[in-house]
Automatic annotation (TrEMBL):
<dbReference type="GO" id="GO:0043565">
    <property type="term" value="F:sequence-specific DNA binding"/>
</dbReference>
<dbReference type="InterPro" id="IPR000847">
    <property type="entry name" value="LysR_HTH_N"/>
</dbReference>
<dbReference type="GO" id="GO:0003700">
    <property type="term" value="F:DNA-binding transcription factor activity"/>
</dbReference>
<comment type="similarity">
    <text>Belongs to the LysR transcriptional regulatory family.</text>
</comment>
<dbReference type="InterPro" id="IPR036388">
    <property type="entry name" value="WH-like_DNA-bd_sf"/>
</dbReference>
<dbReference type="Pfam" id="PF00126">
    <property type="entry name" value="HTH_1"/>
</dbReference>
<protein>
    <submittedName>
        <fullName>Transcriptional regulator, LysR family</fullName>
    </submittedName>
</protein>
<dbReference type="InterPro" id="IPR058163">
    <property type="entry name" value="LysR-type_TF_proteobact-type"/>
</dbReference>
<dbReference type="InterPro" id="IPR036390">
    <property type="entry name" value="WH_DNA-bd_sf"/>
</dbReference>
<dbReference type="GO" id="GO:0006351">
    <property type="term" value="P:DNA-templated transcription"/>
</dbReference>
<feature type="domain" description="HTH lysR-type">
    <location>
        <begin position="1"/>
        <end position="59"/>
    </location>
</feature>
Length: 82
């Protein structure tokens, strides 16, 4: 289990917008990308991506924990943290 590979897969999915594009970017199958993201989610105990058959989005938890969000809202007192 390579923790950095899992994080790289998650980052590639967010930046690329799809598991397929992330797989192409990383040179691995999309099923491997999906498994790595799932492993990361399991390790953290939180869903990082909202998946549907038509859309892929970053979960609210991830958005609220992002550096850009924290710069905008400061300490985690925003309703996102409730």
């Amino acid at each position: 289990m390579d923790k950095f590979a899992d994080l790289d897969a998650f980052t590639a999915v967010v930046e690329s917008g799809t598991f397929s594009a992330a797989g192409e970017r990383l040179g691995i199958a999309k099923s491997v990308v999906s498994r790595r993201v799932s492993q990361l989610e399991n390790r953290l105990g939180s869903r990082l991506l909202n998946r549907t058959t038509r859309r892929l989005g970053v979960a609210q938890y991830v958005t609220c924990a992002s550096p850009a969000y924290l710069r905008e809202y400061g300490e985690p007192t925003h309703p996102c943290w409730d």
